[in-house]
Amino acid sequence: MHGTSYSIGRSPKRLEDHPLLTGAGRFAADIAFPGQVTMRVVRSPIAFGRILDIDTRAALDCPGVLAVWTAADLTELPPIDFRMTRVDGLEPYRQPVLARDFVRYVGEPVAVVFAEDAYAAEDAADLVFCEIDDLAPRLDPLDEPGAFAPGKDAGLRTEPAVLRKGYGDVEAAFAAAHAVVELDVAIGRHSGVPMETRGAVAILDPDTDILTLHGAAKVVHYNRDAIARMLGREPDLLQLSESHVGGGFGIRGEIYPEDVLVCAAALRLRRPVRWIEDRREHLMAANHSRDQRHRMRAAVDARGFILGLDVCFFTDQGAYIRTHGATVSDLAAALLPGPYIVPAYRVEGRIRLTNKTPCGTYRAPGRYETTFARERLIDAIARRLGLDPVAVRRVNLIPETSMPFDRGIDALGTHVVYDSGKYRDLLDRTLDHLGYPALKADLAARRAGGEAVGLGLAVFVEKSGLGPRDLARVNLGPDGAIRIVTGACSIGQGVETAMAQICAETLQVPIARMAVIHGQTREIPIGFGAFASRVTVMTGSAVKLASEDLLGRARVVAGRLLQAEPALLTYRDGAFHHSETAASVDLAGIAAQSGEGLTGEGLFETSHMNYPYGVHVAQVRIDRETCGVTVERYLVAYDIGRAVNPMLVEGQIVGAAVQGIGGALLEEFVYDADGQPLATSFADYLMPTSREAPPIEVLLREDAPSPLNPLGVKGAGEGGLTAAGAAIASAVDDALGHPGLVTRLPITPLALHEALTASAKR
Amino acid sequence: MNDRLAITLNVNGQSYPVTVEPRKSLADALREDCGLTGTHLGCEHGVCGACTVIVDGRPVRSCLMFAVQAEGLAVCTVEGLAEGEALHPLQRHFWEQHGLQCGFCTPGFLMLAAGAFEADPTIDEAEMIDVLSSNLCRCTGYQNIAKAVSLALQDMRAGV
């Protein structure tokens, strides 16, 4: 094994950083074309109501305004379809690109204004008047389902689907139980909130009739096909192009109404059309997420071993079912049992619609929520039986000898089989790393001294590497430069560097002369994009195969050049060596003799996800006066199978952990009784700053490589976040000596104060 | 609204004669009229700090300042931070310490730290970390930003 500074397992500086450091980045708002028109969206000021009239006359009279459209101007555009987890019966709840008949949340697009510049467009948009007959908004997903379209279609209800999954004999488990532990917990509404708002710029080339959408992200190939279908265009006549993307987190890059509107407008107005979201719009228009309520019952034996688990949960999906369909509920239902054996399980996931911003996925979707719920339940079991919570976890963890572990359930249309894992070993390593007994004693001493300090621990399983396939091409140009063409997308996670390192591992050449192409539909026919922690697993494996294919082709050329049997040549440090003559030729020399250069291709396919796992530990201090929670220390132990670039992996974990802490303590989209969103600025939607972000320790392990891909890798993107709510909740309980106190996230000072007051009254 | 004013902006030592509406923000003028798109807009209400630039030696939210207010003042943006090919110590350490992921907030953090140092060259590490809490990053968890800024502070003090 060679060990150059750029191969797998090393942490070279990122290929992508130089332009981002010098102001040369090209984000969506940096893309401008001569003659461009600015689009501004007029949004509903009302949570729920019938549209009586939309008066656009005053806006049309404004200087610089070219057009104003409402749904009546776009009758040919269908609603936005599901990209994932299509469940029968969801179709009528899809979102139209502009509101039709009803407005269903504050922020819903009702009209669009096109003007010569952004200032003129915004002035005119203010003059569009929506006459709306208010209806009582539906805000509590636990209310009895009612009519989705009152007076119009009585058949449509605000519970569009119920997912049911399970295995084993749940009734028998409860009949045999030593005890039954029940728990009701909730996770607030929060979301990814990337620092770059969304943006979409569409331009039509009149000569080729090709329409290009800039500002695309995440899943450009799927989105090209879906938008082309909506527009009634051949997919070949639509290109999606990703430039720099300022954060993804699940929400960026899905198809939203605005993406379709700029495309439709560029075709109709025959001018480039540009839309850049402002932050207020973003906080009420881009996907929200989480927002689940879990009612759980566990049948346990005297050791705390879970014999059976019976769960009903509600997902507040907001006003429409967007591109993710039933994804979040599906993942929650399938992955709730996490790292534990749970021989019998029954779950019912009720999808409910309310008059709030529609939801999609946010980093660790379904796992952040269910890890909070499940780990709270484990703590409750320990409390009920008077056992140590760590011991209860240990008794329930799936042993290494049971791997691969077939859960007997499906998620995202794939069978859930945990591919590899040493859960108990990682738990032990985590406790060793912490010096657990001494740390517990130290915190107990501080509590005895009057401080409210505590420790919380949570164990989780993540999932990553969703298929079905990915294609990559590695081209060795005549000048020796290497171009890696992928169907992946980059949302800032370091795709270029990671792909280059995987290529470098095979080709044994530095990454500096490599260019990594991503997010360009015109460059490659197949691409499944960047989500579900899939890029390093899927695209990375394809890049490895493509690199090997390229090397095989290069070997044939080298054999010819060195007049040797290709199989007898030795490849070392980027060159083929003849063992007898000592002659050699490097890749650049081979390229120079290969005309157009050489291209290797790799297609990697899989029908299973893989399952990284980890442990989060939080140590918190609480100010009893203000009920403010400070995270003093935070540890993420995570087994990634194999780390391509440990620096990037740790970067992912640390960043995700801070997002998780935000969701646990600060972030929430709150609505008033009329359905008005109260968090529409960064002054109201609070995200962690460097003040709230504790130092995050990462215990990165490579103990259980995935047998499902040639690299052995598992995904790094989400595990830093997954158990944050669970670990912090447990730590808060511990700090206050109130086991079971926290039943809801986020644990804001007000919420904590109320919980303490309620508990004192009991 | 349409009474446009002709002003000259001095950005990174260069003069930019521009004609802007009085209500145009400095950020918009830098991006649209000067073509300097390295200054990013993350919230347009002064919280996230992505648009931070240095005006007369102090870090400023360019989304909260009108372009016309910057006339006659020296504005420095991220495009002016490196000296030719030589990266500024902050840029260098952000790169080495993995202080950026998506890179959208990065220009704001760089200009915030550079501006804080320019305003007070005696600023210590703890004060600098405190200053960093005025900007938002959603990717890094701040750990590597803090590391990079601390290392850069040593270099800036030493004049490296």
Automatic annotation (TrEMBL), chain A:
A GO molecular function held by the record: 6-hydroxypseudooxynicotine dehydrogenase activity
Keyword field: Molybdenum, Oxidoreductase
The keyword Nuclease is assigned to this record: no
Alphabetical list of Gene3D superfamilies matching this protein: Aldehyde oxidase/xanthine dehydrogenase, a/b hammerhead, Aldehyde oxidase/xanthine dehydrogenase, molybdopterin binding domain
Organism placement in taxonomy: Bacteria, Pseudomonadati, Pseudomonadota, Alphaproteobacteria, Hyphomicrobiales
KW Oxidoreductase (keyword) present: yes
Family annotation (PANTHER family): ALDEHYDE OXIDASE 1-RELATED (PTHR11908:SF132), XANTHINE DEHYDROGENASE (PTHR11908)
Transmembrane feature ranges: none
SUPFAM superfamilies (alphabetical): CO dehydrogenase molybdoprotein N-domain-like (SSF54665), Molybdenum cofactor-binding domain (SSF56003)
EC number: 1.5.99.14
Encoding gene, per UniProt annotation: kdhC
Organism: Methylobacterium symbioticum
Protein name: 6-hydroxypseudooxynicotine dehydrogenase complex subunit gamma
Enzyme class: oxidoreductase
Pfam family, one: MoCoBD_1
Annotated Aldehyde oxidase/xanthine dehydrogenase a/b hammerhead domain residues: 22-136
From TrEMBL, chain B:
Family matches, as CDD domains: fer2
Pfam family, any one: Fer2
Residues annotated as domain 2Fe-2S ferredoxin-type: 5-81
Enzyme Commission (EC) number: 1.17.5.2
Keyword Cell cycle: no
Molecular-function GO term, any one: caffeine oxidase activity
InterPro entries: 2Fe-2S-bd (IPR002888), 2Fe-2S-bd_dom_sf (IPR036884), 2Fe-2S_ferredoxin-like_sf (IPR036010), 2Fe-2S_ferredoxin-type (IPR001041), 2Fe2S_fd_BS (IPR006058), Beta-grasp_dom_sf (IPR012675), Diverse_Oxidoreductases (IPR051452)
Record keywords, A-Z: 2Fe-2S, Iron, Iron-sulfur, Metal-binding, Oxidoreductase
Name used for this protein in its record: Caffeine dehydrogenase subunit gamma
Organism: Methylobacterium symbioticum
Native organism taxonomy: Bacteria, Pseudomonadati, Pseudomonadota, Alphaproteobacteria, Hyphomicrobiales
